[in-house]
Structures are given as C-alpha cells and as structure tokens.
Structures
1.
Amino acid sequence: MTTILFELGCEELPPKSLKPLRDSLQSSVESQLKEADIAYDSLKAFAAPRRLAIQIEGIADKQPDRTEQKRGPAIKAAFDADGNPTRAAEGFAKGLGIDVSELTTIKTDKGDYIGYEQTIIGQPVTELLPEIFQNALDKLPIAKRMRSGASREEFVRPVQWVVLMQDDHVIESTIQGLSSNNQSRGHRFHAPDFMTIAHAADYEKTLEEAKVVADFDKRQALISERVAALASEVNATPIIPQDLLDEVTALVDLPVALRASFEERFLQVPQEALIKTMQADQKYFCLTDADGKLQPYFIFISNIESKDPQQVIYGNEKVVRPRLADAEFFFLQDQKQPLFTLTENLKTRVFQDQLGTIWEKSERVAKLAAYIAALMKEQGQDIDVAETTRAAILSKADLASTLVGEFPELQGIAGTYYARLNGEPEAVAAAIEEQYLPKFSGDKLPSTPIGICLALADRLDTLVGIFGIDQAPTGSKDPFSLRRSAIGVLRILIEKELPINLVSLVEQAIRNYNTDGEGKLAKLGETFTKVIDFINSRYRAMYTEQGVSVDTIQAVQAINPHMPLDFDQRIRAVTDFRTLPQAATLAEINKRVANILAKSEGDVAESVDAGLLTEDAEKALHEAVTKAQNTVAPMQEHADYKGILQTLTQLETPLTNFFDHVMVNSDDASLKANRLALLKQVRELFLLVADVGELQA
C-alpha cells in the first residue's frame, strides 16, 4: 500500500472554473479507479491558481487477478456427429491461443456451449495511472482549450510541469506532452523556483513551506475566518456571497486578509450600487452593520505577505475610489429631474418589436395592476388603487436612468431610491423594487400589497404578449423567462393566500392589449388557451421540487381548478389523504368507477331511486353516500378539502361490499341505470377535491 501524487502545473487557471475543474478531476479519477478495480484508502483533490493535483493514499500495487469466462459456439455447432471439432470450434480456440482439447462445456438455460476460463493477470498500478490521469484531464469541463507554442497538446492554460510520484520515486510517463518528475513550484513571488517533492505524502506540507495552501477548502476556510475577524474589529458583518468566496479562493495561493476604507460621503449612493461595483469589479467583501446598512469599510484578500501592508491597503483604496465616484456621479445626475420625467424616454424604447414600447407596457401593467388591486380591496386588503396605478406608471422609469444604464441589475432598486427622494408615498416607492420579486427559484416574494399587484401584472402582461405573437419558449430557449414568470405568478397567488381566479387575470391582460377590439394580438381565444395551459403546466415543476408526487399533481389537475390558492389547498389535502390506510383501496375503486361510467351508454341520472335498490350492499352504499353528501356540504363552502377526503374514507367498506355483491351491469335496464346513478354520486363526491383515481398504489 503506497501513496500516489499527481500534479499538473499551469499558468493561472480561470478562477471561476477552478472549483468545477477540481471536482471533475476527482470524480473522473475515482470512477476510473473503480472501473479498473484498483483499491485505495483515500483520495484527495487539490486546486490552487497554478495547479490541480490528486493525492491517493493506501493504493494497491496492482489490480487483482481475475477469471474471465469466454463463451463460444453451441456444442452442436462445435462438434460433428462423430465428436470431432468443427471449424467453428477450431477458430474459437485459435482466437484464444489455446488447443481445442482445453475447451470446456458451459451449460445455460438456452443450451450447452463450448467455452474457456482464462485468468487475467492484474496490471501494475503504476502502468495504469498515467492513462487514468490523462483521460481525466481530457474529460474536464473546459469550454475552450488552447495550445501553447509549438505543442499540439491542448488545455485550458499552458501547462508548465507535471509531477507523478509513487512514494519517493517518480513514475516515468508523458502527460499533456510533458515528462513527469518530482519538481514543482511554490508561490509565484515568495517561492518562484522549482523545488523537489521528497515524498508523495509530503505534498501539502512541502507546498505550505513554499507559501502555497494547496487545499481549496482549507484556503477558503482561512479566508472566511480572517474576513470575519477583521469585520468584528469594527463591529460589522461581512457580506460573503458563495460565488465571490469561490472566486477569491481561486485567485490566491496564500490568502492575506486586509481591511480598507472609503469616504463616508459615498454612502449616500444606493448601497446596492456600491456593493455591486466592489464585489464584481474588485472582488472585495463589503461590511454592514446589524441593520444591514453598508459601512465605509471593505476587506480584500491579497496574494502576498507584504512587508508594508499599509501600502497595499492604500493602493486598493486608491483603485476603488474612482469606481465609487462614478456611481455617485450617476446617482446625482439622475436626481436633476423627477423620476416621472424619465418615463418620456420610455416612449422610444422598445419592449418587443411586435408589442411596442416600454411605455406602452407600463400603461398595460398599470391597468392590470389596478384591476388586481380592486379585487384585493374587495377581499378586505388595505390597498389604494390610485397609488397602485401611480406605482405601475413609475415602475419602469428607472430603466432610462444613468445609474441603471451603468448597473442594469439595479433596475427597480434605483427607482425605489428616486421615488423616495421625489416624495412619492412609501407604498409606491417600495413597490417599484418589489415588482421584480421573485427573481429566481426560492427567492423572497413581494411583501407589500402594491408590490404584489405590480409583480403579478408585469409577469402576466409579458406572458400574454409573448404567447400572443407566437414566441412561446421552445426546448431550453426561453429568452423572456416565461417559465420563471409563470411560477412567480403561482407562488405569489398561493403563498400570499390570494383567492383570485387566474382565468380572470389572463382575460384582463388580453383585453389590455386589444382595447376596443383593436390591438396587437390576433387569435385571442388561442392566446388565452395557450397562456392558461402554460401556467398550469408549471404546477408540476413547482410541486415536484417540493417533493409532491406526480400522480398527486395529476389528480388535482384532472379537475382543472382555476384558482392557484385553491389548487394548492387540494394538493395538500390529497397529499394527506395518501397517508391514510383507506387511500389505496379508494383510489383503485375510483378508477374502476370512472371506467364503468365512461363505458356507459347515454346520460347517467343525477338522482337515485331508493325504491329500485334491491341488494343490501347497494342500500348500504346509498345510505353512506347520502350521509357523506350532507356531511361534506358545509366543508365544501369553506374549502375544507382535507375534511372532505377524511369523511369520504368512510365509504371504503360500503364500496368494497358493493362491488363484491352487486352486479352493476344488470340485465334489468332500470336496475343498471339506478346503480350507475349511485356510482355517479360516489364519483362526484370525490371530484369535489380531486380525481383520486389518478393516484398510483
């Protein structure tokens, strides 16, 4: 049992790709070792700006020997009537390099065959590893590979050295066109010369002495700890997005955290703009107070241990100042005119070529938002319809601002700042930012009533418009993010517990496009159907992500509820129903009832004639159904779907007895019709919640 070390040394690797490259290299090597049946105790991957490495502890010296059975032609084809080998048998033996006399008989269910068991000697691991590592490098997720100089070898960056060792000696090989050795390099500035790795097990320690923390996770933990410590010194909390932390970790061999500051006057600028420019452009960690307000400090990670850290801090402060000054300039420039004035520029900015300008979209959104606000007001929500309209008209104004022109991700956020500076009501200002929520899967929802109206109206207007001009998403192409918009609509209506009919919202959105019968959309009925079907299709993606089974979703979709909140309540009820002991039997019976009714000829009566009930089992079922109808009636009024299904579990025994003792398709037409009517009532009771016949055992 020995230790293997493989290291590929390069020019600085792409920082955003370093972690995926490490993970892919490790995964590929592990799978190849498993496929080759090579045993080992542990495998660890390393990744730093100029290297990718694999260290394998306790690896076997060779593959285990194995026996492999080769099967040839059938006995009948291998030997003639006199028992002499045919050409088929001789050819099979020759191919294996053996004599016909060494062949054996393999007995199978399909007959007897000639065969041979050969022992395959396991290869030494040192002979297999070079190819394993080269294959792993070839399979790395590299979008574009490059060649360096006259070399024909390709990689993401020019390769400078290759280390491949078993314990204290080199495994001779050629990888990426370079001969392997035991020579590596340390930190580019602190230890730039080649150094010898004495033993494969000493890799991490040797590099640490050369000022390189090779373990990506260890380096990242050091950064997090040091950033937190520096932040605590000024009673602040660092903002550490995982993507930024990964990128910074990939940029340095030797993380040295330093804290710097900037002028407090910049804090008047929307902090989102300052944070964005410091994170995206400078890779800095920003600091906030306990209330989330930006503080005039930032922490950066240096890749050198400077003899004069203050000079490094000064240099970073000098670099960031003009960037913050740019954001300040844009912010002050925009304030020279009211936010509403910026809407004039929207009249020449195209939303979509066939759907008009952004200003026209704002007008449609205002109408739809006001319609939603009126519905919410009727339901007892504290919302001002006039303020909702005002917020919608201003909602896209910041798209014409210089700040959003420089920082597109601040759309909505900038508008909220400007609305507050202009003295707009807080409800109006807050809604401008909230219109874009949720921005991604699992993101927070708008919290204010007007923000909810804008978020719904904006998404529905886009959905109706894009489907109306036949630009529906295809495959992975969804340039207007319609799938995300549809799920956003459903989440808002469900999680904000808004009992609003989706059909009415889509109809109103369509009317806003085609005022007075003339407008931008043709085939209105077709557009309506496509939009409703598309939004309904998002239920499956949304609920399966929550762990709800597909057949539960199908059971509810079968009755096509038009209110997302109602749909959700039914989903919860069916999910609970499935846990009950009677569920499987009732699901199967419902499926049977549906099939019987589907095959019946003519219309089935709505009522049951008690006088035609002859069998005890059908009388008992009729009594149980009547009782259930009376019990669930008030539950239906309050949408108590869990209560309804709980009540209907009492039908399990009478239904089972009915099908055990009663012939539905009686020769007597009147008896048959009456029994079908009874089953129809059973079916309609369950359909008050969902088609439980869709549920699988």
2.
Amino acid sequence: MRVRDGHRRGALLLVALLIAGCAARETLPSTDAEPVTVQLLAFNDFHGYLEPPGALTLPDPGNAGATVSLPAGGAAWLAGTIESLRAEHVRSLLVTAGDMVGASPMISALFADEPTIEALNLMGLAYAAVGNHEFDEGPAELRRLQSGGCADLPDKRSCVDGDFAGARFQYLAANVFEKGAEDSFFPPYAIETVPLGGGERLRIAFIGLVLEGTPEIVNPEAVAGLRFADEAATANALVPELKAKGADLIVALLHEGGEAEAEGGGACPGLRGAVVPILDALNPAVEIVISGHTHERYVCERNGRLLTSAGSYGRLLTRIRLQVDPLSGGVLSRQAENLPVINDTAPVPAPFLAAAADPQVGALVARYRDLAAPIVEREVGRVAGDLTRATDDAGQSSLGALIADALLAAMSGHDPDFAVLGSGGIRDDLLVGASGVVRFGALKQVLPFGDQVVLLELTAAQLRALLARQWRADGSRHLLQVSRGLEYAWRGNADAADALIPGSIRVGGEPLREDARYRVVTSSFLAGGGDGFEVLEAAPRLARGPGDIEAVTAYLRAEAPRAVPDRDRVQRMP
C-alpha cells in the first residue's frame, strides 16, 4: 500500500451515521480465511471550501420524519474524519470525482487555488478525476496545479511562500484530449496495488472522466483547444487494457451525476439525470462509479453497479468497504455509506459528535485566512437589503437583476439596450444584514469566474432565438437574468419550442422591431456560446468592458445604498 505524507492515526469522535448505504455479494470465498477489508474514501465538488461552508441537514435519529441541522465541513475536519477512518482500516485509498477547485471562496481563489491543492496533499489524496471547474482558468493553469510553478493570473497571488510544488496526487482525464492528439490530457487511469498479506494483492483501476458537455458550461475560451469524448465509450474502450494489466476491480471517478428521490439503498428510487444513460452504457466490468457534479448525495445499486455521490463542499465523505478474499483477491462483498463531516464551530446536538480537526490542515487554513482577510473584508458598496439567487415563478432573482443592471451600466457609454447573464454564474447569495455593507470577499464569492463585460449586436431574429434557447428539448431550463430595458413573457405549461411568447418581447418599452439591431451586454462566458447559447457566439462584438466584479463595484458605489431591484421584467403565463 502506498504511504503518503499527512496520514495520521489519531482518534476521532465520529458518529458513523448511515446517510445512504447498500451492500452486494460479489463472489464466494475460496477458503475459510478471514476476509480483508479494503476501504475507498471519496468526495466530490469540494470547490476550495477550506473553511466550513454551512450547515448540513440530516435525518434526526431520535425523531422519525424530522431533520436536524448540523455544522459541517471545513478542510481540517474533513482531514480529521479521513484520518479516523484510515485508523480503522490500514488498507485505505482516498479519491475524488472532480471540481476540487474553481468557483472557490476567496481563501482559496485569491491564491490561485494553491491552498486547496496543499490541503488535499496533506489529506493524502491519491487520485482525482478532473471536473469542469478544473478548466476554469484553462489547460495550462490546470497543468500547473498538477506539476507546480507560479501562476500569472490577474487579481491572484501565487507562490506566497516562494514556490508551489503542485499536487502530490494524480489528476486523471481519460476522455479529455488536446485537439489532434491521441493521448489524453492527463493519464486516463491508474492502477493501485493493495497488499492483502500472504503475497496476494488486489489491483484496483481508477478511470478519471469528466462530463462530455464540459465546453457548454465552461468559458469556451478556456477549453478552445480541447476535445471531450463520450464518457461511457471512453471507459469501455479501456476495459480490455485494464484487464490485461491485471485489474481485479475497475472504479470510474466520474464528474457527472444525477439525483434521486431517496438517498440510498436498492436502486435509488427516482434516480435520474445525465449519469443514468452513462451507467447503462458502461461495460459491466466497471463495478463502482463515484460521481459528482450535481452536488447531490446518494448511494445506489443499478444493474449490479454501485453508484455514489457525497454532496458538495466537503460536508460528506463516502466510505466504501470491500471485503476481499486474501487468498484469491476476489471481492466478496461491498458496503457504501455517506458519513457526515461534523465540525465544532457550533453546538452539536446528541447523539452526534464532532470530528477532531487535523492541526496541520487547520494551520494551513488559518495562514491563508490571515493573508486574505484585508482583501476579503474591504468594503465595496452598500445595498438596501439582502440579495439572493432565489427565483420567482418567472425565474428571476433580485441578485440576478442587480448584476444585470450593473453590467448594463458598465457599458453606458456605448448606448446599450439591455443586458443578460446566465444564472449559473451567480454562485452565492449576497447577504448584507442591517448594515447593508457589501464586502469584496462576499462579492467575489457571488461572481468567482472573473468574466469580462462584452457588448454584442443582435438582430430581432437573433434576440428571439436567444430567448427561446432558454428552454431545451430535454426539458431543462437555462433561464437568463435580465436587466431593465428588456421585457418578455413565457408559458409555463408549454413545450420547449412554444415556451417563449414572441409577441411579448419589448426593448426599451417598445415592441420588437424586425428591422432593428439591438446592442446587448453580456458576460464573456455567454458571449462565447457558453451554456449552449450559440447565437451569441455568432453575434458581432462591438466593445469589451471591465471585469464583472469591477462593473458591480462601480454600480454599487454610484448610489449608496443601491436599491434592491424589482423583478418585473419577465412574466410567466399559465
């Protein structure tokens, strides 16, 4: 078994709460020898949340049907939980299913996500699938996170200790290729050999996969030179090679997911989402799929295959225990569960117990917190009330409306008509309380991607196509946030092709004119065709403006406090 720095055997007070679990018999033991436990520990969608991200809601074990809210997450407590579980089973491997970095809080983002990589190194992470957010800053920056070196990124500080050594774990990316290349961007898989004693070994192959649709949800400029292949077809093509190399068990680390009506057991009732067709297309030799992307939590069996996901932000840790025949190396059974990572930042009700925080990871987090504090706490403006991502019946939010208005104001010198932006780029609420003070750290957490403001020109037909594209044939919605100056209505019970009511579109209070050309402000992400809005990619670019953070900051400072905007721009009809 590989030994990595940062492993400790300290005791941990942890309630092994079974949030979601299942077990399956695999093979019969070859003798009466005592089975050996091999443990896989996994999480996903950490997003640089080195500090506790907030409460975790779990079933209340003392009150059937009720729930309890627990303080959860934080890198130090996650590391402590991992250490405790390693102490129970020495044959343990820690893996992740993508989005360890990107859309990160300031404590990580301000330092080019180096603090998160350093924390994962201390946790003893072995392998990580790339997620879509690993590509936010482009392939060269992702390679730097793997191999080390200093970054040259705007508004970020790199190598604060003089050097950054990179990840001691290995990123895997089987279905990502540079255009024209045959080899994958990172190694497609890794095979870990686990000694069982008596000379027998279990060889576990881990395949790293990211969703094929990554270019639709990442800034197109960041992945312009990359190709993303079908997830299942890629994994299936590797199975013969892995078998030839002696793999006894194949595990997919898949940054794609779904959701279920129940969290665990059996077939996961109501399991749905993009992960389902991938599961159904996978070769049966891929026996375990550790998934992510949707930030959901589940442990399921589907067609004899185990599927797991540990929510997000390090508040849960998946434990998969394999019972292995020490003489044959065969997997006799498996059991999976999602365990809460409970911290002691708030009172913890019985019977729950907080994890013991890892002091080394805790010291790392404290150091970067102190370095970030002066920037994070800087006041950038004031608003008259809390702004949230919560949407009304028409899909509009107060925070989305304010940001759209800010983008519009940023291009006021170019006579713009209105602004639109994607809801997915707004990553947090802006809660200001009674003071109304907006601080840079909070605003950066709302808009973490560093998009630029772009002015485009659209014809009337292109504008209709843009608005109609919010509804997709698969039933999904990608509703835009819009500024003042644009109004329209849509039908809530119509098919995607008929949802938009074309005659309802008004620009500047006037009906849409077929002979007009409209000056539309948006983000560089949408302007590049992000989120499937290809019509914007084809539109002429008239001007580039400031970064989105600069635009919102200027908008807030121009009026103090800035009023909470009305959500009266889009109407949903029966």
